[in-house]
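Lecture notes, structural biology module. Today: joint structure prediction for complexes of two components.
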Amino acid sequence: MNVLWIMCDQLRWDYLSCAGHPRLHTPHIDALAARGVRFDRAYVQSPFCGPSRMSSYTGRYCRSHGATWNGFPLRVGEPTLGDHLRRIGVRPVIVGKTHMIPDSAGMEWLGIDPASPIGVSIAECGFEPWERDDGLHPYGPFDPAPDYDTYLRAQGFDGANPWEDWANSGQDDAGRLLNGWLLCHSDKAARIPDEHSETAYMTNRAMDFMRNAGDEPWLCHLSFIKPHWPYIVSEPYASMYGPDDVPEAIRSDAERQTDHPVFRAYQDSRICRTISRTRCAGRLSRPIWGWSNRSTTIWAACSRGWKRPADEGHDDRVHLGPWRLSGRSLDGREGPVPRPVGAGAADCRRPPGCRGCHAGHGQRCSGRKHRPCADLHRFLWRGAPAAYSGKGAT
Amino acid sequence: MAGRPCRIFWEGRDLTPLLHAQPVTWREYAISEYDYSTREPRQILGNAQTDARLIMIRDDRWKYVHCEGFRPMLFDLHEDPDELVDLGASPAHEDVRRRLNDAIFAWARQHHNRFTVPPERIERMTGGEPPGILIGFWDEADFESHFGKPFDDRP
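The predicted structure, tokenised, for the full assembly:
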């Protein structure tokens, strides 16, 4: 059994044609959905990226694994999907993003060499890094040198920071860079041709792995950064949709009149003030990148309308994306597996491949196993957690 | 050999002030937990391993024991210091039970597993993003007004 586990970052659950979006057409994801099962009442365990991912990788709630925000390391000793899979002879590989921060203090305390196999595994959240790339490489000290930069340079896309200046910037008629971090440039096309975009590159890397994997069973966690910000994309996608394709934002002056102190504090924060300013509001009454409730990618702090905080767990932030299983059952039947009933599939899930941990960790996974749905040679799931989506930023 | 320092995530109290006869703020409640999953009573009850949990909370007067899947126990330690009369089902003590159950819930809501990041680092992280990560900036002028330098001078 092999498993390809695809994840997108900041793709909303309802921004797919198979989920009923009135304008967007997402034929490939729809095709996966058509031969699988779509969990339309699934929820992530946190509206923020890191904690949610750690729940995916451990099968445990945030309160249990303790990595409650981006950059809060998952502690040494917390069993992960990769650990479970290795024990049953499956090779767990990451291609792309995990947002895992190594628990360096824990490793030092226990005398674990970060360069040793177990040290690497701990630092990579239990995965074998075929290509680890968290997808954020701005100017500055922030993980500055991905292999993707080397790749881009080899293609002739050179400069001080090819990731930022080519893959995440546009340019005007005079050749000046239009930096994709700035929201006013979200409607521009990225300078990089699509076939060299981060998404295409990472897909190719995953295919490299699969071609070279041999007969050993594997799980490949293909984890895309996009559509996470910087909010800019190459042609033909850049001009494929416009503001008219984005349903109206769900928002109301009534909800701004809150007396709730936390909600007010978020409204008063810089990001929400920025998005509320007239120049944004006028220009981006229905922007493609997420001002509205039904936007393609979520505004970090303002997922519904102008000021719903990322951290609050509004439904559009925590509702899981096109989370689906598809594949072939062990009896050879291809096609949809039975739809789960109710919200049972919704809350915490076990990592794929973890069948209730008969190897002795039964009590440690709080997620449900999916085996009752189907025995699968492979399954694709969680294409795009919406709450990931939400999460703010990094 | 001094050894490597262990991470600190104490849920206990600092006793140093007591050594110096300084005033302290005392806890309002004491909490104790028990897992009877391997004990014969679980066989007798036939309940799940995960439900074989007792959580005791006591304050100055009352002792309340949450029994997962069953009614709680309650003892009035002023009137009944030997804990002989279980008031866990007494209609007259609903308010007491509710208050102590709420106190357990408040305790359960606290962080119990978040210990890989020290509080001082969380303070340093608060209110900003890592260098180079620009979240929610409209244009170059917006950047400049926030950071006080031109966009091209970013890290």
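Point to remember: Chain A touches chain B at residues 63-69, 71-75, 103, 105-106, 108-109, 111, 136, 138-142, 179, 181-184, 229, 270-271, 274-275, 277, 279-280, 299-301, 363, 392-394 (CB under 8 Å).
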